[in-house]
Amino acid sequence: HDVLDSDIQGIDQTVAFGAGLRHHVRKYAAQAGAIRVLILTTPHQSDLGLELAETLGGSAAGIFSKAAMHTPTDITEEALQHLNEAGADAVLSAGGGSTIGLGKALALRAPLVQIALPTTYAGSECTPILGQTENGVKSTMSDPKLRPDVVLYDPELVTTLPVPMTVTSAINAMAHAVEALYAKDRTEATDALAVQGLKAFHEGLPAVLEDPSDLHAREETQKGAWACGTVLGQVGMALHHKLCHTLGGALNLPHAETHAIILPHATSYNWPAAQTELAPVAKMFGAEEPGEALWNFATSLGAPTSLQALGVAETDLDRVAALAAQNPYWNPRDITQDGIRALLQRAWDGTAPQ
Ligand code: NAD
Hints:
Elements: E1 14-17, H1 25-31, E2 37-40, H2 46-56, E3 60-64, H3 73-86, E4 90-95, H4 97-109, E5 113-118, E6 129-134, E7 137-142, E8 150-153, H5 155-158, H6 163-181, H7 188-210, H8 215-232, H9 239-251, H10 255-270, H11 275-285, H12 290-300, H13 317-326, H14 337-349
Parallel strand pairs: 1-8, 2-3, 2-4, 4-5, 5-8
Antiparallel strand pairs: 6-7
The chain binds nicotinamide-adenine-dinucleotide.
Nicotinamide-adenine-dinucleotide (NAD) binds next to helix 4, strand 6, helix 5 and helix 10.
């Protein structure tokens, strides 16, 4: 199988790509020193859990199928109890960012080998970052021990992603790369990785939409997810991620769709202050202004464009703009409440960025 490497130093992670890789999970688990593996999925993906339990045979220590968005700590505690009762020393997180988040939350609480089988493009499997929710309050932390030890990208697993989710999840991944390009702590290596990730989606995504079962194109987009996720773990994020976080928290919006709607607008907002940094995006996606270029790409793929269509009330925009401008963080361009309010209006209306 194809094993990728980057110029990023200091990441101790086994990463492999290939159709049918999930059938070899027992071998990878053993190589990583795992003896008893607890399988994690969402309720929606419990069938995948059953299939993996069969593949793991005697190494399977059970299935926990209650992973949920935003990693609620009560679910983590329940999973931890299963883990302890089963005497598991490893988890196999088979799913998107929510399931991989549960694996990380368990690794925070117990010494574990973590194996990830990503089924979306969100990229959490590449980062040492964990967001958890307790009593409705989300907090984010970063610790190298949270990064999964083994990541197996099996393109067959993303063929079941419905086309709308394929598109929003891919744009969610691309957002990591776009913001990495103007990050304060970027390096030549992170720039190269970000461009590599964007290129993989630029080339792979139209082919996936033409034929969602095209394994070659799916693998290309998974390589994009890997590059974008890895770069997310290397540099600080700015306006786009903070605004999506605020919107998600304040209005309980779906993660990937929110990213897909906001990205062209946040990029346009930052463009005057990061013209050189964002030039590769404009060039790759073929417009003079990178936000417009991303808008054209997203709409050509049928991505959602409007917060209104997500059910956001226009009267909430003032509150979100105030919240987003409240907590200061580094961004290439000054963040003003009026500026964010205007950005949100366009995202709510579903009109092109300016
Ligand atoms: P998700 O994991 O929440 O999945 C959404 C739904 O899609 C679930 O019901 C899931 O079972 C289903 N699904 C997933 N893959 C599927 C497939 N191949 N076929 C059919 N259905 C499938 O979605 P996500 O967007 O991957 O993850 C979002 C979460 O991940 C958010 O909470 C976000 O904060 C977190 N995240 C964290 C990081 C990090 O570095 N810590 C990075 C990105 C995202």
